[in-house]
Design a protein that fits this description.
Order of helices and strands of chain B: HHHHHHHHHHHHHHHHHHHH
Number of strands of chain A: 0
Distance between the termini of chain B: 11 Å
Number of helices of chain A: 4
CATH topology of chain B: AhpD-like
Distance between the termini of chain A: 13 Å
Number of helices of chain B: 20
Number of strands of chain B: 0
Shape of chain A: globular
Number of domains of chain B: 1
Helix content of chain B: 55-70%
Order of helices and strands of chain A: HHHH
Structural class of chain B: mainly alpha
Strand content of chain B: under 5%
Helix content of chain A: 55-70%
Shape of chain B: globular
Largest interface: A-B, 61 and 84 residues
Oligomer: heterodimer
Number of domains of chain A: 1
Amino acid sequence: MALIPLIKPEEAEGEQKRTFEILSHIRTRHVYSQLASVNSPFLSRIMAALVYSLREGMGTILPSKIKQIAIIKTSQLNSCDY
Amino acid sequence: MRERAAVLWAHHVTTNTAYDRDDVLEEVRPHFSDAELVELTAISGLFNVSNRVHDTLQLPIEHSGEVNKIKTSVRVNTGKLKAYYESLVSMWPDDFPSTEEDLDQIAEASQGTMSERRLDEILLPGAAERIRAKGPVVPLSGSEAAQGEAARYFRLASRLYRRMPAALRAWAHIPLIGRSYIPLRLAMLHEGLGGVVSTRIKMMAVIKTSHMNGSAYCLAENTPLARAAGIMDETALAIASDGYMASPLLTPRERAAILWAEQIAINTARKEEHGFAELKKHFSTAAIMELTGLCGYYNMFNRFHDSLRLPPAEDGEVEEIESAIRLDPESVKAYLKAAVENWPEEFPEPNME
């Protein structure tokens, strides 16, 4: 069980709700990490911009296969099943 | 060969040994351009954040049916990202929360010596000289030599930074991604932009994380802000020591934050429940998320800076580093607005070699 609440878009209010509205421009489905990070709504918005542009390629020049190789190696070394 | 080199680099970025392994650099370097190596270091660094945040907060693993719904396109829709930036600006909050801090306790704890030494000199003596002697892995040109998107990136950065530290010059190799790094770092460290944790507590977490990871670069770069937050020489030494949980120089709240930073750095928070139990006594859910994100990202920044062998700031440069604790949200809003107005017309294609 997660240590902090995982906020669902349909239950969010105030700045958390606005954060989901902003995130909907780049995400149609929110993974658990996003549901957790919305607990800090404004920082969640700022963090998502870097994650989205770096991971999924705005202006990136490495092919996705190389990036996925790095991600798998990193996650394996950190024993991260998620 | 390129794929094997990527695995090798990711391994040494993650284990935080790339800065010291000339043999690894020699093997990896010929396979990647400057920009590619910066990007590869950043993506491996980013997953050191992601892995830590997921495991530390014990987030559930997606069910296999849900995994299949995860977006699988390998190229971002840049129009969507532009719309995202635009909505960040148009839905800018009217008010930002205040920090959750007991100022009386801080005043009592803030006693000691504030020397002119940088934090890396106090906590990792000799480390800055060693990394400077090696030299950076990629060229670190400034704005004067930049062209095209890199020049636009520096113009944007200059809205928020008076001085271009080595990290910003490294991100200039991948300027369209670097644009998103700039507001993130500022929002995480300073007060006034959505965070509820004080810069003092955040600096303590940064010091613990960076000391554990041996990052002279991050310690040097954060010296002015830590000093502005009242962190004395003795306090910095107490944070870095093994005995911080018993230090009279730290409040119980500060100790809990440092313990959390330590557990995230060595990735043991999921197994050692006392860390979260301590944290929960002193911090709200929003603050826990913020602190976890900050600690996660400093595990990225430490690795990114050190793997690229960025030279730590020298004494003269440290004086030029921004040390205002509170950030004017309007300056960041103006930055994001300018980023939208300067949206690139074309985006580079990946090197498929």
